[in-house]
Design goal:
Mean pLDDT: 96
Distance between the termini: 33 Å
Radius of gyration: 20 Å
Low-confidence stretches: none
Number of helices: 10
Helix content: 10-25%
Strand content: 25-35%
Oligomer: single chain
Largest sheet: 7 strands, mixed
Shape: globular
Structural class: alpha/beta
C-alpha cells in the first residue's frame, strides 16, 4: 500500500483530470465539488487548505499523459508510477488545516509545499485541500502582507533558480550568468536572484515582444535566440561562467557546452523543449574543464536525503521580504492569475507560450 494512502473524510472541490491528453486542455479537467477530501496518512503528514497553486511545465506533460521522470517523484521515487494522479498540482501555498504536534506545524499556519509528491505520486494541489509530508512543507513568514496569488508565484520557481545558481553552479559576485529560457518562471527568478547577487546577467528569449520584460527584470543583456551565438560571442568571446539551461537537454550539445568559459558550469534544470534526455551522450561531449550539473530539492547521492532542505525557510523568508519592499517586483515574476475552474485555460495559456513569468491558480 502506498505511503500516502488514506481514508477520505468528507468532500471538497477539485479540478479532476478526467480526460488526459484531450484537446483543448479545458476538456481534460472536470470541476468536481464532491471529490473525496483526504485525511493525513500518518502523524508525519499535514493537511493543508490550499489558497493558490503555481503552475509548472511538468504539469502540462502530466495533463498530456506523458510519463514523468523518476526524480520528479522526489522523496517518493521508490514508489514511482507512470500514470498521473487524478489531481495535478506540484506546488501550493495555503493554511495548515490539520497537523500532529510532532510535525512542528499548527492549524492556521501559512505554509508552502513544493516537489512534495503531489501531482506525481499522489493527488496534488488543484483542490481545496492537499496532503503534504512534513519533510516537504515549509513555513512562510506569518506576518507577510503579500496576497496568496503573489505568494503562489514564489516557492518552486524561486527555489529551483536559487538552487541551480548558488548550490549547483556556486555563483558568486562578478560571475557572468546566461539564463537560456529567460522568460520562463524559473528564468525570471534566476535573473532577479543573480542580478541582486552581483552577477552580470544575460537572458535569452525567442520572441522580440518579450525583450522589454526581461530588461525590466534587471538583465544586463537580452539576446534573441535567432543569432544568439554570434551576439553572445561579441559580448563574451571566451564564454560565460554559468549557463542555466532551461530549454532542455537537447540544447546542451547545440548551444550550451560551446558557450561556457573554461571552468564554467552548465546547470540543466529546465525542459521547455520537453526533452529531458540526450541521446548517445558521452562525457567527451563536454569541453575540457567545463562542468555539467543538475538541481532539485534534496539529495539523491550519498548522504542525507534532505541535505540542503534546512535552508529553504530562511531563503523563502528573505525573498518574501524583498518582494514586500519592492526589490523583487511582483509584476516581473507573476504573469497571470486564473481561478481554479479555469485551470484548463491556464494550461492552454502556458502551452501557447503566452506567459512571461509565473501563472498561478487561486482556490477560493
Amino acid at each position: 500500500m502506498p505511503s500516502w494512502s488514506n481514508k477520505p473524510r468528507g468532500t471538497m472541490t477539485a479540478a479532476v483530470l478526467t480526460s488526459p491528453s484531450a484537446h483543448p486542455p479545458s476538456s481534460c479537467f472536470t470541476i468536481d465539488s464532491s471529490y473525496p477530501k483526504p485525511t493525513t496518512p500518518s502523524s508525519d503528514w499535514v493537511l493543508v487548505r490550499v489558497k493558490a497553486a503555481g503552475l509548472n511545465r511538468a504539469e502540462l506533460r502530466s495533463r498530456a499523459n506523458e510519463a514523468p521522470a523518476v526524480p520528479e517523484f522526489g522523496i517518493f521515487a521508490n514508489e514511482y508510477h507512470e500514470d498521473p494522479p487524478k489531481i495535478l498540482g506540484e506546488e501550493f501555498v495555503g493554511l495548515v488545516e490539520e497537523a500532529d504536534a510532532s510535525t512542528n506545524f499548527s492549524k492556521g499556519q501559512k505554509v508552502a509545499g513544493f516537489i512534495y509528491g503531489g501531482g506525481k505520486a499522489h493527488d496534488g494541489a488543484y483542490a481545496d485541500f492537499v496532503i503534504c509530508h512534513k519533510r516537504r512543507l515549509f513555513a512562510l513568514p506569518q506576518d507577510t502582507s503579500l496576497s496568496w496569488e503573489v505568494l503562489g508565484a514564489i516557492p518552486m520557481s524561486m527555489w529551483t533558480a536559487y538552487g541551480s545558481l548558488f548550490e549547483a553552479a556556486q555563483c558568486a559576485k562578478g560571475s557572468s550568468v546566461l539564463v537560456h529560457g529567460g522568460t520562463s518562471s524559473v528564468g525570471l527568478w534566476a535573473v532577479l536572484l543573480a542580478k541582486e547577487a552581483g552577477c552580470t546577467v544575460i537572458a535569452t528569449t525567442r520572441q522580440e515582444g518579450k525583450v522589454e520584460k526581461l530588461k525590466q527584470s534587471g538583465a544586463d543583456h537580452v539576446l534573441l535566440e535567432s543569432g544568439l551565438e554570434e551576439e553572445l560571442g561579441k559580448l563574451y568571446s571566451d564564454g560565460v561562467d554559468v549557463i542555466l539551461e532551461l530549454v532542455g537537454a537537447d540544447a546542451l550539445t547545440t548551444f550550451t557546452f560551446n558557450n561556457l568559459a573554461r571552468h564554467g558550469t552548465a546547470v540543466c534544470t529546465g525542459v521547455l523543449s520537453k526533452q529531458w534526455t540526450l541521446k548517445d551522450f558521452s562525457p567527451a561531449m563536454i569541453p575540457p574543464t567545463r562542468r555539467l550539473s543538475f538541481y532539485s530539492l534534496g539529495n539523491r547521492g550519498r548522504g542525507d536525503e534532505d541535505a540542503g532542505v534546512e535552508v529553504v525557510e530562511e531563503v523563502m523568508e528573505r525573498v518574501v521580504r524583498k518582494v514586500e519592499d519592492g526589490t523583487y517586483r511582483r509584476d516581473v515574476f507573476l504573469d497571470r492569475v486564473f481561478p481554479l475552474n479555469e485551470v484548463g485555460k491556464a494550461h492552454e495559456y502556458m502551452e501557447n507560450s503566452g506567459a512571461v513569468g509565473k501563472v498561478v491558480v487561486t482556490i477560493p
